[in-house]
Amino acid sequence: MIPGKVIGRLVASQRLDAFKGVKFLLVQPIDERSEAVGKPVVACDAIGANVGDRVFMAQGREATFPLPDKFNPADLTIVAIVDEIS
Hints:
This protein has strands spanning 2-10, 23-29, 41-45, 54-59, 76-81. By secondary structure, the chain is mainly beta.
């Protein structure tokens, strides 16, 4: 699981049929102190995250599981919204 913060939305003029109905978000990976790590990435949204939300992303084959079409080429998918850090 990769932690991140949603910083924007991505609008695609064309997409694969496997991504029909899937929202794409721009996510900045973060560390345990909520500081940016590396460059922003594009992730599929499986749970309805919004800009400003802290999230966890699944990577690799596990990123394909929460999406409607199981035979999609997703590499990153948002699978959890962080409500609170204590």
